[in-house]
Fold this protein.
Amino acid sequence: DGAVLDTADEASRASFMKSHAHLVSGVVDLATRIQADEELAALIRRKYSIKCTTGYSLNALVDFPPSDPIEIIKRLMIGSEGTLGFISQATINTVPEYDNKASAFVVFPTVKDGAGAASVLRKTTMVDAVELFDTASLRECEGNARMRELVPSIVGCDEGTTALLIECRGKDKAALDKRIAEVVRAIKEADHINITGNDVEAYPFSEDKDVFNVYWDVRKGLIPIVGAARETGTSMLIEDVACDVDKLGDMMEDLIEMFKRHKYHDASCFGHALEGNLHLVFSQGFRNDEEIERYSQMMQELCEIVADKYGGSLKAEHSTGRNVAPFVEMEWGSKAYNLMWELKRLFDPNGILNPGVILNEDEDVHKKALKASPPADAIVDRCIECGFCESNCPSRDLSLTPRQRITVYREMSRLRAMDASELTVEDAQRLREFETNWTYNGEQTCAADGMCQEKCPVKINTGELIKSIRSRNLAEGHATELRAADFAARNWGTLDRLVPTGLGIATAAASVLGDGVLTSVSKALNSVSGGWVPVWNNYMPTGAKSAHFEVATNASSPAPAAAELPPVEAIYLMACPARTMGPARGDEGAGGRSVPQVLRSLADKADVDLKLMPNATSLCCGLAFSSRGLQAAAESKGDEMVDALVKATDNGRIPVVCDTSPCMAHIQMSAMAKSPSMQFLEPVEFTQRILAPRLDFSNPRNEPVAIHVPCSSKKLGKEAAFGDLVSKCCNGTAPVSSGIPCCGMA
């Protein structure tokens, strides 16, 4: 009814008690009846002694007295999936995140050995986390080279092999060491537990982040990694079950055997062993009646194993949804199930809040309205729509995220693939609406920077999909733009010389006419040129001076530190932006110097022989073309650049420094096939690694500096170089991150 209950506000609680007396009275009655029923109350307490999110949170009705109905209502809302109301705000109690932590990855020969060890650790130690991996998930771990190096016993492991990822934490080093010793001793003294290699100390705890992060990154990425290995056209499903930790080994063996019998050969079982909680991941096609029936039979047996045989939870963490709604009564029994319906009708008498979720009278609902995963493009067919990518996307608050782009493109591909006779009027209208909105939301607003790939556990680059779509679209009726790109590629040197002149004229015009007039004119030109002419703003750069590298500004003799180190030479590839653009008007921080001038000055002070790349004005890495989908021009310029670099660097002997990291990353990718030995240095990495040890840092700033690390530098793993260099310039003060994942200009 739109009422708001703030459980942290006494006045709101009192007001709700009066305004919703009927609801409050019903909750009090339910709590009173349940607490008077010793058998039912005992069932509820037993169910919540393990993880359980199946059905409604009946524990709220036994954990608090009927005299405190607001607290009961608050707890009932948790996990109710929008079927009783919705939570608009939550205050969460947190736990300390200690810096002192260590992890070990221990391998066991059988499921029961691994699960048994987890049970021992739960009962006899204060261990902080224990994650379980079955054989199928360990085989996915084999694909990680660092995992193979750290835990060689997982390579080619036998069927049944299981592993535990164990973490200990402590408020100080002494507390951490005590917990580690406790865990090692508990496993050693458990005489019924076998360990692969027969020695728990063969799997040492590591406090090194570079080691234990490998373990945890693999664990966090297991669901998407397993899902990405599925057959194209199938969906990845996750079930989430739990039982008493003492029964975990037996239940896990039964589930593995069940998957084999139903021919789910890619199924994997892993999860939170300390809580007896397993995630069951498998692929499932919904392409015909036979596939759906196989799924139905498997789900029936899965629920019987977990709920009937082991008294477990069909949903431990992920809530009931529609898929498990037909099996809630199987787990809870008729009495508790009917009370859940009574609760639902009390809060939602008209059945309008997320109907059919958690409770559903249709026992076949889990076989209906199934979401397929149709093939769309090989670049993204592995996507399971987990959403890890979304936080890195610059357009996430503007149009679509990578996950949404893929989902929409899949649906468009499905509709396009249908025969005209199959396409309903509604389908045709739906496709037209998608296509109308796709151009801007799907294509034009994608930065194609590939940062989504950095967060994706299976390294899908949605930007590559968009660039391939742009390329296909250009090939269909965009001959003028293709000819223009070809002309630009063949006459790049001429354009390279014209840009500084154009910027100089624009800067002069802005000084005379003002920024407002020039902005209006450039907007019109931008529209006419299809985006090739940029829109003016008062931060636009001036035109570059022709001699802005040859003449070193503020040149001085080499620093004393340089004299003590061996000579260094490098080829300086001045990228198009640095060749054509100087500092912006009013950029006092630049001191009137361009990027090449600053780099040359630093190289002189460091006594580094920085040779300018010959004939660079006609060269381009191809990134400007590639981002627009102009692949022929991009490949042509890329090949030309690599050939010139091979010659200039003496077949890769001399390292290459490029002043623009996106360009450098693109060249490096192009060069991998032709000259894999070629050495490339990102500009900040070059300064931090080569120049900084040869320089004297005096008069550092005593204030923090904000930094923005470009997407390409992040993808190359160079963020630490930025921080280290800025710290040297700021008297050891750590830099402040911009917090911006991408500038949107890839």
The CA atoms of residues 321 and 357 lie 5 Å apart. The mean pLDDT is 90.
